[in-house]
Amino acid sequence: MSAPDTTATTVPTDNGDTSDFVFDVDAYLDRIGAERPAAVNYEALCYLQERHMMTVPFETLDLILKNFPSVRDEPLYDKIVNQRRGGGCGELNTAFALLLRRLGYPVTLLGARILHNGKHAFRGQYHGHLVLRVDLDQPYLVDVGFRWASRKPLELRRPGVQSDPHGDYQLFFTADGDVEMVHNGVLRWRAETHPREVDDFDAALWYLWSSPHAPANTQLWASIVTPDGRISMFNRVLTEYENGERKSSRVLDDDAEFLTTFEKLYGIRLGEVPDLPATTEGV
């Protein structure tokens, strides 16, 4: 099945109305350094997911800078493609869903909540995370916006361990029909299995942006996948992982070094270092 050519077309918004917003598929593919797939299949999905994770960083700058994030089509496209930014989990996964749909993939948004912050278990807010269900020969779960996400799609109905370059993953269905993801023995998130629309995530975004109890708006997270692992920043702590192991970790105390390093790793130029809490331990 060939992917439909939807480059530079007028697309429907999430509420079904017609807008003048033009989603340029080729520009988005160029942003992630990917060629247009010749077919809509699992192999192409793996390729697109990996390219997205290696080029579009997870980053929470907007929350730190008090800019309200959006999961709507046009601002997402502008932020990721035109501004060459990254975003939070909801932004990255929603943006990836926009691309996949225009390439012909059947995609469903699923609401989720984080259950581990990298240091200890906790109960994140409902719809504080978002994952994608992509239905091909079977249903797959795709996540391009989470620090501990798999590099390849996970088979939703497959029992047992699914080995991935980012570790070992297992999916478990709960008694009430949700699905839980365990990564390297750690329960990371729980997702609903019924479809959601982007409007359903507005309340969680508002909480993350405004609540004094939400750490995301007072601390900086940034992360990008590399060929052998991942490079993450938590506030001023830069941590590099290789083949699943922590390779190095250090604090970027010098402002000039912080700004240079952030731009080099994540492709984002900052005028000054945001006001960040003192931290010595990375994630």
TrEMBL record:
Family annotation (Pfam families): Acetyltransf_2
Gene3D superfamilies, A to Z: Arylamine N-acetyltransferase, Cysteine proteinases
Family affiliation: Belongs to the arylamine N-acetyltransferase family.
Designated name of the protein: Arylamine N-acetyltransferase
